[in-house]
Amino acid sequence: MSSTLLEVTRASHEEVERLERLVVKDLQTEPATNKDRLHQSHRVRNMIEQIIDTTHKLVDIYEDKDGARKDEIAALGGQTATGTNIFSAFYDRLKEIREYHRRHPAARVVIDASDDYEQLLIEEPQIEFSGEEGSGRYLDLHELFNEYYNSKFGARIEYTAYLDVFSQPQKIPRKAKSTRPYREYLQKLLEYLIYFFERTEPLQDLDRIFSKVTSEFEEEWTIGKVEGWENSSQENGSAPQNHTAIDLNSYSTVEELMIEGPDKLKEALGALGLKTGGTIQQRAERLFLTKHTPLEKLDKKHFAKGSRKPEQNGVMPAPQVGDDVKEIALMEAKIRKLCDLLDETIVRTKENVEKKQALTYEEMEAEREEDDVQAESESDEEDQQIYNPLKLPMGWDGKPIPYWLYKLHGLGQEFKCEICGNHSYWGRRAYERHFKEWRHQHGMRCLGIPNTKNFNEITSIEEAKQLWERIQEKQGLNKWRPDLEEEYEDQEGNIYNKKTYTDLQRQGLI
What we know:
This is Splicing factor SF3a60 homolog. InterPro entries: Matrin/U1-C_Znf_C2H2, RNA_Proc_DNA_Dmg_Regulator, SDE2/SF3A3_SAP, SF3A3_dom, SF3a60/Prp9_C, SF3a60_bindingd. Keywords: Metal-binding, mRNA processing, mRNA splicing, Nucleus, Phosphoprotein, Zinc, Zinc-finger. By secondary structure, the chain is mainly α. The protein has 23 helices and four strands. It has a two-stranded antiparallel sheet. Strands 3-4 form a two-stranded antiparallel sheet. The longest helix is centred in the N-terminal third of the chain and has 30 residues, at about 35-65.
């Protein structure tokens, strides 16, 4: 009986409502560890995907392209080929239901499917991480670092320094970006960052993020302001061919064009791949030819030696080159966006690498074993419900700390820091310690202010800016002023400062 279209519709609506309640219930639970947070995020993502799939089925049913839903509703209303008979349709339907349950007596048992849905809340999705990634806490870029280190576009730097530069592809020289190894390296880096981001942030809509990045990139590319690729669209033929450093539409004769000067004419000719030598008149005549004649129709004698003519063997390679360059620039823009989203992870990765460099092999092995033991103990205690009505912080043993200790350290007192993005710190100790932590330091760097002891206890952006202005003014008074402090001596041995000496010299007194 559940095979009817209306019953399928009802069951689908019920499934969507159940999944929505489960999502809300799951998100109301605060995860205790990073592993729990990842499991919760992936569970919610799986349930959202189920909701989307079921909703698509409902949309298809309501669109009713084949008319099956309309026919079923008409049949329930007693509409037949001979006319409308409500009572006849009702009793026929009742007879069909009774006959069905007579043949299938087990179908009378009411099955509560809520238990099946509740199982989704304790499900542990399988998330694969390498040993270096630490369950999503760190990045593992060693393979990409080796490729960068051994390439012509890379540099001979350490892994810690690579963690600072891999997110800045715009600083690589443009000549090195046109090579095939750089393109392959960029594709691998982008694929890894996407894969890592999808595993650690499954609730983020990466397609929407990339669509926004692409739209902003297209606008900047059109005006030639993509970072690291300024005016690249014109250089690679994706702009109109008569677009040079000089607007030829403003000139009607060669003599008028000569006013631009030899250097600017040379730059415009070089941008088009034409010869740049000769007198200023020859350069102007050569450039003026491109005003009414397309580049592909110009005589090859006008092109520089070694440059490719725009039309060769009946094909136009320039737009293809432009498309390749544009694709590389777009990949760089996506990498920069992902690195901004993973900024905290990059900082943690660098700190972890620096910490490992100070450890011996035995200490690293001991730390790895300790992490494994801690992970096993966490998995064993996951099923145990901890009674914590006051919502006290957890201690080192995974149990709530004593209430007197909670009051002693003032953990119920909240401190907000505007520089940290209005982040909350509980307790005076955590508040004082956060001034030296990465979040506060990053906020101060964004404001362009050094994070010194002078700015301790200051959490307001406005107060920090005012104090920094006062410090700069004070430092300006203490700076050496040559007009007042630089000393000069005349022939008689008298000492003057620079200003006095200059004034007397002008007056002819010394």
